[in-house]
Design a protein that fits this description.
Radius of gyration of chain B: 18 Å
Strand content of chain B: 5-15%
CATH topology of the largest domain in chain A: Dna Ligase, domain 1
Structural class of chain A: alpha/beta
Distance between the termini of chain B: 30 Å
Radius of gyration of chain A: 28 Å
Number of strands of chain B: 4
Oligomer: heterodimer
Strand content of chain A: 15-25%
């Protein structure tokens, strides 16, 4: 058992696994990693009991401040750093953590413990005054936004900490306490209060979670990847999340903090850099990834920091994955015996397979073509058509049956009707969050943004091929092909398993009782129940969509005729799992 | 301010919308909006096609010239301007949240979010709610100065609540009054009121 620091707090030292209800999912995950013998920064947890007491009495329970002091003392002992002053300052993160994660709970406050004094010592310890200053600024910004709940103004990097505090006080109507222990107490209280935020209450109501459970608060020592040459930060995937290949994949940035990677100011190096610089750490990291993947039964995405030659795991979770990787992870892990085939099938969505099998430029087509413009790839897909720059004209011609590429300097809501009708959207200004990018993704229309002033509107009247995956616009109509589901061994394996498990038969060809292409309303999922009633088999129309498959199952259809088959089988499995 | 201006403004904001949608956007009754739009169509300021209205070039010019007259006082209102500037800051975050909703960063590459990762979606939705709540007091200031903006509070709350109850298309679907659709219309509205130009 983790040991008790008092009535409401537990130090997580890896000796056993406390109750998840009591300490919340985040602390539980830290405790579990420690119990597996993995290296995690020291942490203590204020249990949900303290939250219940707070909610009941409207005040923090007596003695909680003493317990927090004991928790901080334990972190100081475990880390060899001191909180609020000293030559090696201890900074902590404060996060909410209920047993079930829910929306509306307080976000993480990082770098709590930084003050004018600790900023100076941190600057000396890291040899990086700019970093220490920026850590201070980011802390104040987070504290202002998260604990004081203000729309804080931009904190100018050139200003002083006193200026920043003043700006936050003006925006929030309350000051950031000067003493880090008071900051910690306020942050804990803010977590407890977030339990009763509008969104959290709604979520609990919606999911039947009792309001009395309460949330825990995890306080964890921060580690620094920018201390010396034996420090750094990175991410590791236990397998390649793009291709799905069974090989660790990751990035490492020496002498850096996580924010440096996120900010894009520095380019991370491949993981082999870590193997060269710190081979023992690299080996320990790979072993940890293997352990976590085996224990959690899924590919892991692990954030880590190396501080003065020592590895710390910060977070692990099921890895996000590209469609190709989703398929390969599922099949490989089932064949390795790590998961059963039902789990494998549940990890690949019909939509992922449709994306994999969607039309793309034929191999070699792009190499021979003339590239007319290039920009940021905003939405995948290939669009071939004639360039039109006037939105109303684009809509008119598209509705008349012509394939149209809409080219604009930028787009606005004025252009949405044209974007709906066209096969691709290209713009001259704006990036990944621009209106054109957001709306094209929502519509599923191929889109390239930010090609440069005068680049794409000048193509008016020309036939072009837009490749939303690479961000390039080519002259002429390039050949487009759809991949074959039977040619890929991983897709073939999934298809075999899906056939055995699915509640419905799916055939690629042959006739059916009803061809929805040939009847009025067959494209409309809403009308399928009426159209399918009393039939045993169906094809065409909306039958292969997720909604179509659901309607078919509900109508008692036994056979769907559609190609490709796998998305239909997976949609049928998804629908039967939901029931 | 006059009702004709409001009706034309509603057409500019809603784009190719029916009279009812224009009415709801600017706080006119449906019957009043329909009558005004019929009059505007007769005067060549809007065109109607398949029950959807759009401004003509002349209508657009007339409308654009009216803003400075009707919103003269608001353009000098310091509290309103300050709130608008806070809106622009939140807007940067909101656009990032919507982008993160639509795309996954997989090992440094952007791929389409197919919404199969419930955990990820839950986190992004949580951020959307967090941005929304931080924006609420800012919107309250804007509404105090220009009460008709209250329609956006109602529509944003509705979209958020639909999305939180599992109807994911209410985050950014361009074909319905999703959070992003409403947010963008509100942005457009504020830009017109203040006579500013959108920056991508």
């Amino acid at each position: 058992m983790a040991f008790e620091l008092g009535q409401y707090t537990l130090a997580i030292d890896g000796t056993g696994l406390p109750d998840k209800q009591l300490i919340g999912g985040k602390a539980w995950s830290i405790a579990r990693m420690r119990a597996l013998g993995l290296s995690v920064p020291p942490a203590f947890v204020i249990t949900a009991r303290a939250c219940s007491a707070y909610l009941e009495h409207g005040a923090l329970p007596d003695g909680l401040d003493d317990e927090l002091a004991r928790g901080i003392a334990w972190l100081e002992e475990a880390s060899g750093c001191t909180f609020g002053d000293g030559s090696r300052p201890l900074l902590v993160s404060v996060r909410s953590g209920a047993a079930i994660s829910m929306p509306g709970m307080m976000d993480t406050v990082l770098n709590l413990g930084i003050t004018d004094a600790t900023e100076a010592t941190l600057a000396t310890a890291t040899g990086d005054a700019h970093f220490a200053r920026d850590t201070h600024r980011r802390f104040l910004d987070l504290y202002g936004r998260i604990v004081l709940k203000a729309v804080t103004p931009e904190l100018d990097e050139q200003a002083t900490a006193a200026d920043w505090r003043k700006l936050i006080e003006d925006a929030a109507g309350a000051a950031v306490p000067a003493d880090p222990r008071a900051q910690l107490l306020s942050a804990v209280q803010a977590v407890f209060e977030s339990w009763n935020s509008r969104r959290a209450r709604r979520y609990r109501q919606h999911h039947g979670i009792p309001d009395t459970l309460g949330t825990a608060v995890t306080v964890q020592a921060m580690v620094f990847g920018n201390l010396d040459d034996k420090s750094g930060t990175g991410v590791l995937f236990s397998r390649n999340p793009l291709s799905g290949e069974r090989a660790p994949y990751g990035e490492y940035l020496a002498r850096a903090q996580g924010e440096d990677v996120v900010s894009g100011k520095f380019t991370p190096q491949p993981l082999s850099t870590l193997a060269t610089l710190l081979p023992d750490v690299h080996a320990e990291l790979l072993a940890a990834a293997e352990t976590l993947e085996r224990e959690n039964g899924d590919v892991q995405d692990i954030e880590f920091t190396v501080q003065a030659g020592r590895l710390y795991l910060l977070q692990t979770r099921a890895a996000k994955r590209a469609p190709a990787a989703a398929v390969r992870f599922a099949v490989d892990m089932a064949e390795e015996g790590r998961i059963d085939t039902a789990t494998a099938l549940s990890r690949v969505s019909a939509e992922q397979v449709r994306t994999l099998l969607s039309p793309r430029l034929a191999a070699g087509a792009a190499e021979a073509a003339e590239c007319l413009a290039r920009g940021e790839a905003a939405c995948q897909g290939v669009g071939v058509g004639v360039v039109v720059t006037n939105t109303d004209e684009a809509e008119r011609r598209a509705l008349a049956g012509e394939a149209v590429v809409l080219a604009r300097a930028t787009t606005s809501p004025d252009d949405v009707h044209g974007m709906i009708a066209c096969c691709a959207v290209v713009t001259e200004q704006g990036g990944a969050t621009s209106h054109a990018a957001v709306v094209s993704r929502a519509l599923g229309v191929a889109c390239v943004v930010g090609c440069g002033d005068g680049s794409v509107t000048a193509l008016e009247g020309r036939t072009v091929t837009v490749d939303g995956a690479s961000g390039r616009i080519y002259a002429g109509a390039l050949p487009v092909v759809a991949p074959d589901e039977n040619a890929d061994p991983h897709l073939a394996a999934l298809t075999r398993w899906a056939e055995a498990a699915a509640p419905i038969e799916v055939r690629a060809e042959g006739g059916a009782d009803i061809d929805l292409d040939a009847v009025e309303g067959g494209e409309d999922v809403e009308r399928l129940p009426a159209l399918l009633a009393g039939r045993a088999s169906a094809q065409g129309g909306a039958i292969a969509s997720d909604g179509g498959v659901r309607a078919a199952l509900a109508a008692g259809i036994r056979t769907i005729v559609a190609a490709p088959r796998l998305p239909v089988l997976l949609a049928a499995l998804e629908a039967s799992r939901e029931q | 301010m006059n009702d004709m201006h409001l009706a034309l403004h509603g057409v500019a904001i809603k784009k190719h919308a029916a009279a009812e949608a224009v009415a709801a956007a600017v706080g006119l009754t449906p019957a009043r909006a329909a009558a005004l739009l019929a009059e505007a169509a007769a005067g060549g300021r809007v065109v109607e096609a398949q029950n959807a209205y759009a401004l003509t070039p002349a209508g657009r010019m007339i409308l654009d010239n009216q803003y400075s007259r009707f919103y003269d006082a608001l353009r000098e209102d310091e509290a309103f301007i300050a709130a608008y500037e806070r809106f622009e800051r939140v807007n940067v975050e909101l656009k990032q949240v919507i982008t993160d909703w639509q795309t996954l960063d997989v090992g440094g590459q952007k791929v389409r979010n197919d919404h199969s990762n419930k955990d990820y979606d839950g986190k992004v939705l949580d951020r959307l709610g967090e941005v929304h709540e931080r924006f609420e007091p800012v919107l309250a200031v804007l509404i105090r100065a220009l009460p008709r903006l209250a329609v956006y509070r109602h529509k944003l709350e509705r979209a958020l609540e639909e999305a939180e109850s599992g109807k994911l298309q209410w985050v950014s679907d361009a074909k319905l009054e999703s959070y992003h659709t409403v947010w963008f219309e509100m942005h457009e509205d504020l830009l017109r009121v203040l006579g500013r130009v959108r920056e991508e």
